[in-house]
Amino acid sequence: MKIYPQTICHLFEPSKKNNTFLKEIFPNRENIFVHPYSLSNTNSIGKLYGDQSGSQFGSLTKRFFGKQFNIDFDFLEEVIVKRFDEYWLQENLPEKIDFMKIDVEGYEMNVLKGVGELIENISLIQFEFGGSQIDTRNFFRDFWLYFEEKKFKLFRITENGIEPINFYSEKLEFFYYSNYLALNSRILS
Questions:
Q1: Between the chain's N and C termini, which has fewer beta carbons within 10 Å?
Q2: Alpha-carbon distance 81 to 40, whole Å?
């Protein structure tokens, strides 16, 4: 925000505690919008599970960490769930979105499906893939096939920069948390 202060940001945070915190961080900012709901592929009321209010592990699925971590997902909060494509049209957002970051503890694929056909108007998407995908039963192959169909190129963000992923391999099915970039190949043409 310091480099590009006029950037327009839409933040989606369903946790009441975290939403309040974000609104305190960004008071009176005309270009930052904090929304009190979760994104997914449906419009509904969902359950946000966590180990406490405002949990960094908060997810729409009750995650299983195993006994070695001593983390229980006993905190529950009802939240509003919305599709992004319907939000986008309802709010009359600009035709193009430069960047979308998705970090929703296992629901990344659901959020992508909730973008619908408007995904072709997004230039770059960053998403997380890791252990939470075990709980939601998503594989990297699901992301590969989805982005291949939508004509996006995939890259893995590493400590040495970004590495292109030119083809799918089962070796990509490791559930160690990593971040990926999906670049809309239409913008390269």
A1: C
A2: 6
* DSSP assignment string, 124-183: EEEEEESTHHHHHT--HHHHHHHHHHTTEEEEEEETTEEEEE-S--GGG---S-EEEEEE
The Cβ of residue 5 has, within 10 Å, a number of other Cβ atoms equal to: 8
Compute the distance between CA of residue 82 and CA of residue 14 in angstroms, rounded to an integer. Answer: 11
H/E run at residue 40: strand 37-40
Please give the Cα distance from 142 to 21 (Å, whole number).
34
Tokens of 151: 């004509």
> Is residue 75 over pLDDT 60?
yes
To 5 degrees, how large is the angle CA 158–CA 38–CA 126?
A: 20
Instruction: Output 52-57 pairs: Cβ under 8 A, ≥24 positions apart.
Output: 53/15, 53/16, 53/17, 53/77, 54/15, 54/17, 54/18, 54/21, 55/15, 57/105
Rounded to whole angstroms, the Cα distance separating 62 from 135 reads: 8
Q: pLDDT digits over 164-178, tens only? A: 999 999 998 888 889
C-alpha span between 169 and 112 (Å, rounded): 21
Query: Is residue 1 scored above 60 in pLDDT?
Result: no
Structure tokens at 157: 């963000």
The whole-model pTM stands at 0.89
In the numeric block, the tokens 């299983």 are attached to 64
Pairwise CA distance, residues 172 & 129, whole Å: 10
